[in-house]
Specification:
This protein is 67% helix and 1% strand. It has 419 residues and is mostly helical.
């Protein structure tokens, strides 16, 4: 299975780059990857490399440390925070941590969430009531998502790029101990430790974990998964509530309920999966019903408006057939060697791998994800790391973490990823 998956990824990338070389543009600079060749070497590189090396040393000490779950989880959070900040020094120093959020005429920041805050001057209620009609004029990222993050920024008084970066970096790093807890719940201590350390160093986390709001969404989704896969009914209920809240930040996070349901089916039986699906559906209806009554927010109209905006933009020039293969290919490329072992788990029909493959298949068939999956599928990365941990021999952990960090550093230095 790993060889087949690798061959398909290689062929897809080759087709995309060959088409681009002949002047055929399918909506991505290095189709299917949203990266541009832009090598940069500065004096910050030495500090970045030293930070990553220190992080690797600590990770290898940590995986064998005889510490309790609480201390291990806290150490994971610190390690994730440290390594993400270290990598994202390499090109331009500390400014790189927040520069993506700076609203300038020609920059990624003009497309980000801070640019939508002006619409909240009239208040959160009117903003939510008119959100569907505002989608056509909002910057592309808030237009492509529910209003949860913009509302959160307003509630916390976050208006500067630095403050938004702090929010996304800290909340994003918190996904690592949550993944550790999920690994312990589903499997064992060893698998949980390996999966969480893979997530620390996987290129997707290092490259986008400190510079994209998708890191924050990943944590929200993972918390919902952790709660939904509890065996206690009350905790599962709070998991469904967490899922509803998470979908107010990203529509895509609804997919993690599908992953959790399939895993629950294998673990607890078909009836348990059905009960979870019915519970999540009911909570979602109540959540958005109450929101509509309280503020006028119409989630159906918002989704329709986002769909129209998406297909009037770059998605309109991204062909469905190519990105049916291209979206998974880009995601697997940014997973690095994690993709190999995740594919090995898929070949052995391991349930977390099967569930992840099913979620990805639904996403590409639906056509709502065309390119940029190396970033916007960040919420699936911890699940891929958990899957890979099931197939990774213990003796390969050290070279695996080194290879992941090296790929992330290479991407950071050679390519401009916009984030």
């Amino acid at each position: 299975m790993p060889i087949i998956v690798t061959a398909m990824v290689g062929l897809t990338v080759a087709v995309g780059l060959t088409a681009k070389a002949f002047g055929v543009y399918w909506g991505a600079p290095a189709q299917p990857l949203l990266i541009t060749l832009d090598p940069v070497v500065t004096g910050w590189l030495a500090i970045s490399v030293a930070g990553l090396a220190g992080g690797l040393f600590l990770a290898l000490r940590l995986v064998r440390a005889e510490v309790g779950a609480g201390r291990f989880g806290f150490a994971l959070f610190g390690l994730a925070l440290f390594t993400r900040l270290a990598l994202n020094l390499a090109r331009s120093g500390p400014e790189e941590w927040y520069s993506v959020y700076i609203v300038r005429p020609v920059s990624e920041g003009r497309l980000e969430y801070l640019g939508a805050l002006t619409e909240l001057k009239v208040g959160i209620g009117p903003f939510l009531d008119n959100f569907a009609s505002l989608v056509a004029t909002l910057p592309i990222h808030p237009a492509g998502h529910p209003p949860g993050l913009v509302v959160t920024l307003d509630l916390f008084g976050i208006e500067s790029p630095q403050a938004m970066a702090a929010l996304t970096i800290v909340v994003g790093a918190a996904a690592t101990p949550v993944l550790y807890a999920l690994g312990r719940r589903l499997f064992d201590e060893k698998t949980a430790r390996v999966a969480s350390l893979l997530f620390v160093f996987v290129p997707a986390s290092l490259l986008y974990g400190a510079t994209s709001a998708d890191a924050l969404f990943a944590t929200l989704g993972l918390v919902a998964v952790l709660l939904m896969l509890s065996k206690r009914a009350l905790v599962v209920f709070f998991g469904a509530v967490s899922l509803a809240v998470a979908t107010f930040f990203s529509y895509a996070l609804l997919a993690i309920a599908g992953w959790a349901g399939l895993v629950k089916w294998r673990r607890d039986g078909f009836a348990a999966m059905v009960r979870l699906a019915l519970l999540c559906g009911a909570v979602l209806i109540v959540f958005y019903g109450v929101l509509a009554l309280a503020t006028g927010f119409d989630v159906v109209a918002a989704v329709d408006a986002t769909h129209d905006r998406y297909y009037k933009g770059v998605a309109g020039v991204r062909p469905y057939l190519f990105y049916f293969f291209g979206s998974p290919a880009a995601f697997l490329v940014i997973l690095g060697p994690v993709a190999w072992f995740a594919s090995r788990s898929l070949g052995s029909r391991e349930i977390t791998a099967l569930a992840l493959a099913a979620v990805i298949l639904v996403a590409v068939v639906g056509g709502y994800t065309k390119a940029e999956t190396e970033r916007i599928w960040l919420f699936l990365v911890p699940l891929a790391c958990l899957t890979a941990a099931r197939a990774l021999p213990e003796k390969y952990l050290s070279p695996m973490l080194l290879a992941l960090a090296a790929q992330a550093l290479l991407f950071e230095l050679v390519f401009d990823t916009s984030w």
